[in-house]
Amino acid sequence: MSSVAAAIAPAGQSAPERPATGDVANLGTYICFGLAYVLGHGSAALSKGDNPVLDLPGWLPMTLLGGGLALGTIQATRAALRAQRASTDPDSVRTGQLLGAAWVTAFAALFLAITGLSATLDHPDIRTLLWPTGSGFVVGLMYVAEGAARRNLLHYTLGTWLALTSTAALLMGNPNFYWVLTIAGGGAYTLATLLEHRRLASTRH
User: Fold this and answer.
1) How would you write the chain as a 3-class SS string?
2) How far apart are CA 17 and CA 79, in angstroms?
3) With contact defined as beta carbons under 8 Å apart, do 127 and 118 qualify?
């Protein structure tokens, strides 16, 4: 193809080459984050409230959620690094680096916001409400940014859904918002996992 392009290029000009950009494979990330939503938020939904369905220790839902998110973050970092190594476009590499730094900035800002609100407002459930929903909101917006930068419609759509449903869950109150996060978030990650698997399979052929 490049030889054909070179043949039809005007004399004295080289044929423009399409910059090689690394494709980020999000399959492992979606699986880990999906399990975190289903197991973490799901166990919280079943064990909290006035009439809990299950009698679980209070630390278990957060441990399941945190463990799944940590594994998902590791998977996302490894996938982004693999994509950077495969890319020959300096602008693409720099974009990936800036997006990686943006994750740190976003969660640092979220931590400061929740800590400040907790210190200012006398509301015992403020942390319980804002950490699950706020983290979903931040993750959703970061997916939107990454999807736009990498022209990945699936990533962008998933991020839009997570940002909207995570903030809408605040309207439900405690513990009902956990059900919204479990069903809307976990279901979205399940669908995204299936679509990402099909997308990656199609690129190998």
Assistant:
1) CHHHHHHHCCCCCCCCCCCCCCCCCCHHHHHHHHHHHHHHHHHHHHHCCCCCCCCCCCHHHHHHHHHHHHHHHHHHHHHHHHHHHHCCCHHHHHHHHHHHHHHHHHHHHHHHHHHHHHHHCCCCCHHHHHHHHHHHHHHHHHHHHHHHHHCCHHHHHHHHHHHHHHHHHHHHCCCHHHHHHHHHHHHHHHHHHHHHHHHHHHHCC
2) 25
3) yes
Residues in the chain: 205
Among candidate residues 145, 195, 185, 205, the one with its CA nearest the CA of residue 25: 195
Spatial contact of 32 and 71, defined as CB atoms under 8 Å apart: yes
Q: Who's near 6: CB < 8 A, 6+ residues apart?
A: 14, 15
DSSP state of 50: S
pTM recorded for the entire structure? 0.83
Contacts of 182 (CB under 8 A, 6+ apart): 37, 38, 41, 42, 45
pLDDT digits 0-9 by tens, 37-74? 999 999 999 988 777 888 888 889 889 988 998 898 88
The whole-angstrom separation of Cα 172 and Cα 178 is 9
